[in-house]
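Hi support team,

I'm opening this ticket because the web form for multi-chain structure prediction keeps timing out on my end. I have pasted the exact lines I submitted so you can reproduce it. The total is 793 residues across two entries, so I didn't expect it to be a heavy job. Is there a limit I'm missing, or should I split the entries? Thanks in advance, R.K.
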Amino acid sequence: MEADYWKRGAERWKALLESDVPVIYVGAASCGRAAGAAKVEEAVRAKLGDLSPTARVVEVGCIGPCCLEPLVYVQRPGKAPIVYGDQSPETVAVVLESVLSKGDLLMDKALGVLSEGAQDGIPSFYEHPMLKPQTRLVLRNCGIIDPVEIDHYFAREGYLGLKRALSMSPEEVVEEVRASGLRGRGGAGFPTSQKWTFCRKAQGDPKYLICNADEGDPGAFMNRSLLEGDPHAVLEGMLVAAYAIGASHGYIYIRDEYPLAIERLSHALQRMREHGLLGQKVMGTGFDFDITIKRGAGAFVCGEETALMASIEGRRGMPRPRPPFPAQKGLWGKPTVINNVETLGTLPNIMRMGGAAYAGRGSEKAKGTKTFSLVGKVKRTGLIEVPFGTPLRKIIFDIGGGILNDRGFKAIQSGGPSGGCIPASMVDLEVDYERLTQAGSIMGSGGLVVMDEDTCMVDVAHYFLTFTQNESCGKCSPCRIGTRRMLEILERIKKGVGEEQDMQRLTEIAQTVKDGSLCGLGQTAPNPVLTTLRYFHDEYEEHIRDGRCRAKVCKDLFHYEIDPEKCIGCQICFKKCPVSAISGKPKGAHTIDQARCVKCGLCYQSCPPKAKAVKRADNGPDEVKG
Amino acid sequence: MRQVIGSGTPQDKAPWREAVARILSRHGNERGELIPILQNVQAELDYLHREALEEVARALRLSMHDVYGVATFYAQFRFSPPGRHKVRACLGTACHVRGGDDVMAALERRLGIRHGETTKDGEFSLERVACMGCCALAPVMVVGDEVSGRCTPSKVDEILARYGGGD
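Hello R.K., no limit was hit. The queue was backed up. Here is the completed structure from your submission:
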């Protein structure tokens, strides 16, 4: 019976790719939608009504280059889809008209074709500078298949990994995963097979499996993209993990800020039930397993295992000391394994290709690939996947295309509020768990935020600490009080009223918070402060000694002024200023009333490039401080 | 600071009781259902008022302070009515380094309220969120369900104008 699933999947997939009517694919993940994909899709449907009423429209997930969103791929009968980026309702109508009725492929606008080789003179999209350096294993289906079509997933060898796992003993599955070298993708990098073995051996019934989809790090969206673009990959992984540890029930704990991912998951669970992949006797074997979705309610600390379990149990999401570890005493006191979305999403690949083959990629201590969300001051932002051991330089400059507006590269931040800032001088660092830890940061879930010379490192430390201080659950005092005290110090440094001893104070409190906190939130909260102190000591000193913020970010330490020589009196800034702080007559030089100015920067941004009269100037140590 | 409980009162008696009863009957009375129940109650009533929380506590045989303790722990729950248009500005890392603070400042200026507040006419409420997961399009703001990427203070004016606000 099941053999039919793959057969039917393959047939339906082939029918789509070889459709005799045009097929238009729209990248409609959250990122695409934020860029306006819904309006683009509407325009596509309207235009097709005139051009090709029988044509199909398919919503796909995110293929990665969010900077090019909204993405639309146009597939003509018998041809591979051509990718067009940065579409609007107006441009997409032109693209459809040109490609489908005039036979003009708009070569200068085509980003590539979704095939291995070139077609009609358009290179493969996989040769695009952003995609070429990548190895897409976890993300192999994202942006390619329709996430609501389980048949597409079957066609791409979906659930074959599970089929193989169910033909083995649970011990053999654990062994296969051990051979793959898989380590947790949620941050700490603990070997997955070891975690599973603890749970397998633990006494207690039932056992639970939890998928941690509480992707709380600001600046990270790898899990969201995977769940939206290929939900079955994660669900198949859950079945494999549950079978290996002997769990009969699973939970997906997912942030409520991800409504589309929740919708995709609910839909996928429904399809799985219909296909005998969930509930009693999965795939006709003796394995029973079911999954419940639990929506988070907005608490960052719930990404921590014990807090997450407290939240599922309906309590305040506060962590508790470990041991006992969840593998021994977890949800409702029963043995529980908590795996990250990406860890689970990797399992189908491992089971399908075999552990040893999977371990052929990556670095010595970290096998396989890792997804990252590459954001911040980089030209090409988006979701990427590279083997462990890939140098930062390759990620930032090859995949990311270098720094936005060709500014100077200052630092890259990994690991969110628990991570640290790695300076430009370490750009050849090969990314894996140990090397990032040595540099004072952490792998974390995979957010990479690029910072340029316009980013103030004191401000970055302040930003992360504001976040962790706010999200500290308050249970243990080192975290509750320590983060607050550190934040107060950073606030005064930002205001230019810091003291010479403040850097020493920060280091001491940071160490105490690191050593004394109960859970990962507090233990890692000082990392952004410690790494910026370590690598950007001079910026702290400038703030404290000279009252200067070289990046012109800390608002108390600089002001805007208009160069009377350069001002052309166009009055744009005069009109834009929200607080009427600018005065001046048409064609005459303008001035800013510093007492009124709120430093919103609108004048600076709106001053015509030919004039460039608005400048940001240091306040200097003697001027009045905010 | 979090809103004090009971600062909002249910306008009219019957409809909300029915909604809460419906939600409670769907979820059963296990402790593990507490948070999903509160989420659904808020989805129906827009915020959690004292009477609704008391109903939930009774049904789950929990004390009121237990239910209130859980509800106030999570940032998602509101205890006073939000504005007709819920405006959220993302202050995630990517948004921060790309000027999210300026977007928030522009929103506060244009709406004449601070984050966590609602305009006097009840039209707009303003909240900050830690990350919407659309970091590649930073800075991001949301009105209702409409997400807008690559925001600037000038774009804030355009967006608010579409909802009849901003001056």
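A quick check on our side: Chain A has 24 helices and 18 strands. Let us know if the file doesn't open in your viewer.
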